[in-house]
Amino acid sequence: MPPIRRLAAIMFADIAGYTAMMQANENDGMRRLKRFRAVLDESVEKHQGRVLQHYGDGSLVLFDSAVEAVASAKEIQLALLQEPKVPLRIGIHIGDIVTEEDYIYGDGVNLASRVESLGVPGSILITERVIHDLRNHPQFEPVSLGKFEFKNVTEPMEVFALADTGIVVPRQSELAERPKVRPSKQWGSGAIPKGRIIGLATLVVICLAIAAWLFRLGQQQGRESLAIPDKSIAVLPFRDLSPEGGQQYFGDGIAEDILNALAQSREMKVAGRTSSFSFRGTEISMPEIGRKLGVSTVLEGSIRRIGEQVRVTAQLINTADGYQIWSQRYDRQIDDIFAIQDEIAQAVAENLKVILLHEGIQPATRNQEAYDWYLRGRHMLSQRSDGAEAAVDFFQRALELDPDFAMAYAGLGNAYLWLGWSNILPSREAFPQARTYAGEALKRDSTLAYAHSILGSVHLWYDWDWPAARQALEKAIALNPSEAGAYLDLGWYYAVAGDLNRAILQMEKAVSIDPLNLEYNIDLADINRMAGHYEKARDIGAAMQELYPDNSEAYWLLGLVDYVQGNYKTAVGYFRESVRLSKGESWSVMHLSMAQAKAGQQVQAQQQLLPLEKDTAVVNAAFVEMAPAYWNLGQHDKALAWLERSFQQHANWMISLQMDPIWDEMRKEARFQELVEKMKFP
Question: What is the pLDDT of residues 641-677, one digit of tens each?
Fold first, then answer.
């Protein structure tokens, strides 16, 4: 009978470590082999396949359909992952086979065997040719492991792992061979994800600006500061794939809870939320994200919520080459969401080979509706002052449902901090409430670093209780070394204490945790301005201007840099743009008037200040910035009167009196000196 050549879906399966298993316990080894063959035979017959040969602990199977081959492989693995477990590896390829009498051979058989050998117990590896037949079958979720060079195959071949629930996906360190070519795509949730084009040219400019700043920063700090730690991670926002949409806040919440859990490990660097979330929906590559955030791994994922059902997928990516280290899918009832977060955080920590989060993520609340409102509040709070008022309402709704919800109290405290910092509420109204809610959070969870950081902010910006501020901020850092906001405010503490170099170091720590955070970068630039490092301040401000072109604060910072250097007309231009972008917020108008008065535009400056004098919100908030504006107009008594009112109302920027060169011309005034003495700076 002449040889018969045909195209087939070829499945090769074998038991990993079978020889050692037999040596350890021959009876147990034989029992598991029989179980493997029984499960295999039943499944293959069910899926219209044919077992051609058994090779000791391995088997060669043919199918006419790739879909049936993969379905059978999945069924076999899920069965053998149950006790008594059989550590099986499976490889599937579509290719030519040659049948001649009792022999079956061909490159397709050899390739299926080699693909199988790359895997680990519990895994199913398939080739790119199989992928083509699975495209219209969303019940399967393959993920790319990269391209491999195989013997007698001229071009590298891409290999995928089935990532369906319960199936094991090999880590890169476990693969028998390393990928030679970066994977060309990822495939999950039944379809190839479609990229969203969001202005790549703009992103390139942003990357160059940030890279230039990091380069200059690296020149000062040394080469070693630019090294990316092996144990480092960024958690990107989980994409909302829900049919009805509207669940992005929920995906953000899951990602942030995982981020916060991972941040508890002192051995792991965790990139801050703002920087990580800035890559939402971008087409920037994983290696580029790794370079920008200074991390070796990235966790990304998606959520799909339908009624009370939720599907969460998560993938851990190596940023050096973009290869997937680990992936998993979780299908749960919505009330089991805490278990999902715990499982993901545990798996990520294990794959990074760092300290496991032994206690896992403790449920923030047992009330799922309260947790939902809390996530909405935190989502609004990520918009800073613009979302603070809505965040207050959402956190309060969460507390109505669970009065012992510590994180909701802390969120409420943080919202009031923003209302005070932005002068939406007067300091005397905002900061005491922030203190109260931080205290309520700590009554319920004394280890909550977030709440200690909020309390430290209140002591610093409002109470002017310097020892208490330092103690609370250092406590926050001790509890969570990735609490970036605590480093930032600790920097301000050292600034008011007169140690600007130490202040800069603390703020650089905050920026290293969250390198794309606008607030942290602006504060770092501002403290460099106060220290006389004008070029560094200007470089950071320019980078933020590129990154956030529609935000007023970068222009405000650049205006301040030129102002203290005596470039008043240039400063007017920056402050004017800050006024435009902030839609005429009072603080920006005050700075514009301050610069105009120095630039010979006294009439314009005076005209802009008159309406502010009659604005109840400005009077009640006692803006510190009114003082230098009136001083520059020659109205010294009025300037000092405004400053004394600011002191009485504990306006937050009173802490700048000792260190900011803006006040230099006023320092010889006795009334100014009295205020400095009353502040009792450390």
Answer: 999 999 998 988 999 999 999 999 999 999 999 999 9
First-to-final CA distance of the chain: 97
Mean pLDDT within 413-429: 88
Q: Which residue has the higher pLDDT, 649 or 318?
A: 649
Give the pair of three-digit tokens for residue 464. 């002017």
Print the domain residue range for 257: 228-352
Helix, coil or strand: residue 96: strand
How buried is 44 (Cβ within 10 angstroms: 0-12 exposed, 13-18 middle, 19+ buried)?
buried
* Residue 164 and residue 39 share a domain: yes
Residue 100, in any domain of the structure: yes
How many Å apart are CA 454 and CA 469, to the nearest integer? 10
pTM equals 0.58
Name, in order, each residue with C-beta under 8 angstroms of 69's C-beta and a sequence gap of 6 or more.
9, 10, 11, 47, 49, 61, 63, 92, 130
Cα separation, 585 vs 538, in Å, equals 23
Dist. CA 131–CA 142, nearest whole Å: 8
222, with CB counted inside 10 A (0-12, 13-18, 19+), is exposed
Q: pLDDT tens-digit profile of 575-608?
A: 999 999 988 889 899 999 999 999 999 999 999 9
pLDDT, residue 224, reads: 35
- Is 349 within 8 Å of 335 (Cβ atoms)? no
Mark whether 435 and 344 lie in a shared domain.
Answer: no
- Domain membership of residue 263 (yes or no) is yes
Residue 215 placed within a domain: no
Last residue of a domain, one of 131, 155, 174: 174
